[in-house]
Amino acid sequence: MDTTFNQNNGQPEEVVAVRKNGDGDIVELKLTSGRVVDYKTAQSMVKNNEIQHLNVFKGRDHEEHLRSDPDGRKDNNLDNLPTF
Fold first, then answer.
1. CB 40, CB 30: distance < 8 Å
2. Which residues neighbour 64 within 8 Å (Cβ) at sequence distance 6 or greater?
């Protein structure tokens, strides 16, 4: 069982910042607990309802990607979050 999930009183984490590579692709995500996870780990966590406000979708490239749940806001989209 993931201890990060338990540290948040059973509530899923949220992404507070992202790290991008030289191409501008998100490679790591920083969570509300301060934990940093790589992109693939974040995808698994989203599928397990351990990170909220994100979803996993299959892109035109047939690969799985993360995106923010649609809520009409742009400031909380992954690409617009602060970097670390």
1. no
2. 43, 56, 57, 58
Helix, strand, or coil (residue 7): helix
Contact 81, 75 (CB under 8 A): no
User: How does pLDDT run across 27-81, given as a tens digit for each residue?
Assistant: 999 999 999 999 999 999 999 999 999 999 999 999 999 999 999 999 989 999 9
Query: Residue 80: how many CB atoms within 10 A of its CB?
Result: 11
| Cα(69)–Cα(1) distance, integer angstroms | 25
E strand segments, the chain: 15-20, 26-31, 36-38, 54-58, 64-68
Six token digits for residue 74? 């742009």
Q: What's the pLDDT at 6?
A: 47
pLDDT of residue 10: 77
